[in-house]
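If your schedule permits, I should be very grateful for your opinion on a structural question. I would ask you to consider whether the tokens describe a fold that such a sequence might reasonably adopt. Thank you for your consideration; the sequence and its tokens are set out here.
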Amino acid sequence: MTYEEFNDYCRSLPATTYVVQWGNSHVWKVGGKVFAIGGWEKINEPAFTFKTSDLHFNLLQDEHGFRPAPYMASRGMKWIQQYQSAESDDEALQYYIKESHRLV
């Protein structure tokens, strides 16, 4: 998923707002609270960060291409960052972003 596709998908969810902050990251909010971040890491590939349930956090933290989100997870929050992706992962990433939107 590219940042443009990420932004288009987040924009399609109900009642979202967009702001660029934290070093030019694409930050998406619902009700003034962050539910998804595109960017935030200085790596060559796009990185996407989202809130998860306890179950998804436990499952994803050990999956290839995923890790506990820098900064947030170290403070006890259940946030995951996808930092390596493939086109086939777009559907799964959309699912997790939509779940993050619902959780927030």
Q: What stands out?
A: Residues 90-103 form the longest helix (14 residues).
